[in-house]
Amino acid sequence: QVQLVQSGAEVKKPGASVKVSCKASGYTFSTKDIIWVRQATGQGLEWMGWMNPNTGNAAYAEKFQGRVIMTRNTSISTAYMELISLRAEDTAVYYCTRGSYIGDFSPWGQGTLVTVSS
Amino acid sequence: QSVLTQPPSASGTPGQRVTISCSGSSSNIGRNPVNWYQQLPGTAPKLLIQSNNQRPSGVPDRFSASKSGTSASLAITGLQSEDEADYYCASWHDSMSGSWVFGGGTKLTVL
Question: Rounded to a whole number, what is the distance in Å from the CA of B27 to chain A's nearest CA?
Answer without folding.
Answer: 15
